[in-house]
Write a structure and sequence with these properties.
mainly alpha
């Protein structure tokens, strides 16, 4: 069984974080032990803190500022998962805790997608030279974490035209490309996506294993596949 998983460890600043799709909930969620309940409570407290901080802010001044706030919230929720992911909880309990986490995060991702569609630039996508690199990357993150495959495909086509002009980041394009290939059952090109296979974290099938490092360099990814696998803890239990 192949199940997409999120990257639990922070990567180098120049290396974009891989996709973080929600794992499916366990068929029969076990009763949470005190340790699992504590892990979930820790996540909820951290996430609630960020929500409260944002609620205390004045209304955003425009699209760029709202992009930053929306992404700050969804990223905070994902970063707060790290203690759960690296914990010693038994795998069934860990899955059950993460299912509870995703019950709160998924509606946020869905709302971000709906909102982003209403504020797209007239020419279809955000540009480094116009909205700024941070805004372009924040918009991409919302798309990367969206469950709307048709929207992801539309954005990928728009980004493809802009990559060669340095108007969007090559690594962002690569991660969205790989993500769509994986979800449509095709091999990925850049080696950015990992999945849980038979209880172990593995890099998803590659289009051209012999050339993957060359392809990664061409698109601006700063690590080799082997370096990336070490960051992702490929081979660890999942």
């Amino acid at each position: 069984m192949l199940v997409p998983v999120l990257a639990a460890l922070a990567l180098a600043a120049a290396q974009p974080a891989p996709a973080q799709p929600a794992p499916p909930p366990p068929a029969e969620a076990p009763a949470l032990s005190p340790a699992a309940q504590q892990a979930l409570a820790g996540w909820k407290a951290e996430f609630a803190k960020v929500r409260a901080e944002q609620a205390a802010l004045p209304l955003p001044a425009g699209v760029v500022e709202e992009l930053a706030r929306r992404v700050a919230l969804e990223q905070a929720g994902r970063r707060a998962m790290t203690p759960i992911m690296v914990s010693d909880l038994p795998a069934p309990e860990k899955r059950a805790v993460l299912a509870e986490v995703w019950r709160e995060l998924t509606p946020i991702d869905e709302d971000n997608t709906r909102w982003l569609k209403t504020v797209l630039p007239a020419d279809g996508w955000f540009r480094h030279s116009r909205e700024g690199k941070e805004a372009a990357r924040n918009a991409w993150l919302i798309v990367q974490h969206s469950s709307d495959r048709d929207f992801q495909k539309q954005v990928l086509k728009r980004m493809e035209v802009l990559v060669s002009r340095d108007e969007v980041a090559g690594p962002d394009y690569a991660l969205l490309y790989d993500r769509l290939e994986m979800f449509e059952g095709r091999p990925q090109r850049y080696g950015s996506q990992a999945s849980c296979q038979d209880g172990k974290l593995q890099i998803y099938t590659l289009e051209d294993p012999a050339r993957v490092d060359e392809l990664r360099r061409r698109v601006g990814l700063k690590t080799t596949l082997e370096e990336y696998k070490a960051m992702m803890r490929v081979g660890a239990s999942c």
